[in-house]
Design a protein that fits this description.
126 residues; mainly beta; Hypothetical upf0131 protein ytfp; 6-stranded mixed beta sheet
């Protein structure tokens, strides 16, 4: 039996509504999103976007959206390209939120000087 792929995408930074890259994601979502958290540490890259490393005891605040069935693959392909071209080379990983949702999310790769965002919330960074 093949494991079903997540239908939702967890976003914690510039893809969130109200930030500069929301317009890339918005056409592909089918709901208003669910605020949630995931285990991990959120960092400021100093480049106007965050980086996340999943796992551990800290929490990252964000929102997850159900992607439209008809364009889900297209959305993920486009976002994979976008996330792979930024400094730090992010990769899409499957994680489970604190609320129990199976989601895709983009995790930081390597090579940047990072500063922890203690709140775990990109919108509440100081």
């Amino acid at each position: 039996m093949t494991e079903r792929e997540p239908e939702r995408l967890f976003v914690y930074g510039t893809l969130r509504p109200g930030d500069c890259r929301w317009e890339l994601l918005e056409p592909y979502v089918s709901d208003s999103g669910v605020e949630d958290t995931v285990a991990g540490t959120l960092y400021d890259t100093g480049l106007d976007y965050p980086a996340a490393v999943f796992g551990g005891s800290s929490l990252i605040r964000g929102i997850h959206f159900r992607l439209l069935d008809a364009t889900r693959d297209e959305a993920l392909r486009e976002l994979d390209i976008v996330e792979d071209t930024v400094d730090g080379l992010y990769r899409r990983v499957r994680i489970t939120t604190s609320g129990g949702a199976e989601v895709w999310a983009y995790e930081y790769g390597a090579g940047l000087n990072l500063t922890v965002i203690p709140s775990g919330d990109w919108f509440a960074r100081a």
